[in-house]
Amino acid sequence: MPTAIAVTSPDLVLPPTDPQTPLAALLQAPEAQPLDAALADMNRLLDQHGYVIVLYPQSLPPAHEQRLHTVRSLLESDRITLIGSALPPLGLAVLVRQLRQLSVCDFSPGVLASAARLLAHYVHAGAVLGSVTKLDRVPVGLKAHAKSWLPGSQFAVLAHPTPQLVRVGTGELEGPDYACHLLAAGNPAPADWVTATLAARWQVGGVERCALPVYSPGWWGTSKLTEFAAYLPDLSVLYQLVASVRRESCRWCGMELIGDRCGFCSSPVPAPELRLPAGGSAR
Fold it and tell me: What's the per-residue H, E or C state across 109-122?
């Protein structure tokens, strides 16, 4: 069975791109599920899948995040990893789907978990907002704050990978330099500027619409917004991207990893000059 991917909200589970893409498990909030039921659910996931990768937004309510740590601690399992992501909610939903796609490939749980950091770099996540007065996750200048009070003002904001903020109609957001698709979600509906103007500027190969994640209004500081995320849609490209990175074994927990940090215990990979040769010892 593939490594289980788990989330903290059902709207972080986008529709699968093909019949082979598995769904993600839902880890409910403390007010929706007692602790013993949460422990039983996690135990079931471990029995069925062996390893569980949990992705959640860093804006998750503290009680819900504490529940995740409590479950892992009480089960005393090193086969559960908790990954709090700085991506906006829609961008996180894209990352979750990409890991779901890759979970059926021949990657070990350690490589899959550490791939989350790698793939996040290729998600361009932003939003169109009517006001930036309560936006505290992207730098906002005094002029933008002042213009937020003008009727009809709209701002295009890119939160990741490089923060950008422009007023719609007076500036452009710098987008990805690779072939991508665009996912858009709006309240009440995605803005035409995103699905038409931005999509054309970024030369996206396709536009997909979905419901606005429940965490989005809190993340962006307003309920009137269109959130968007540009991403790599092709599984073969995602596979080659992850497979091309050198694999190592974590010196702390022994899990296989890519990049500079273990996806399960978060132990950093020593710098090349500090690594010991195989069978070597420190002097």
Answer: HHHHHHHHHHHHCC
pLDDT digits (tens, 9 = 90+) for 100-129: 999 999 999 999 999 999 999 999 999 999
pTM confidence score:
0.91
| Chain segment 198-217, per-residue pLDDT in tens | 999 999 999 999 999 999 99
Tokens found for residue 258: 């890519």
Q: Which residue has the tokens 């215990």?
A: 265
Bridge-partner residues for 128, per DSSP? 156, 226
Q: Residue 185: enclosing H or E segment and its boundaries?
A: strand 181-186
pLDDT in tens, 51-95: 999 999 999 999 999 999 999 999 999 999 999 999 999 999 999
CB distance 109 to 102 below 8 Å: no
Distance from C-alpha of 69 to C-alpha of 54, rounded to nearest angstrom: 11
Q: Is the dihedral of CA 203, 98, 209, 136 positive or negative?
A: negative
Helix, coil or strand: residue 247: strand
Q: How far apart are CA 130 and CA 154, in angstroms?
A: 5
108's torsion region: left (phi>0), alpha (psi -120 to 50) or beta? beta
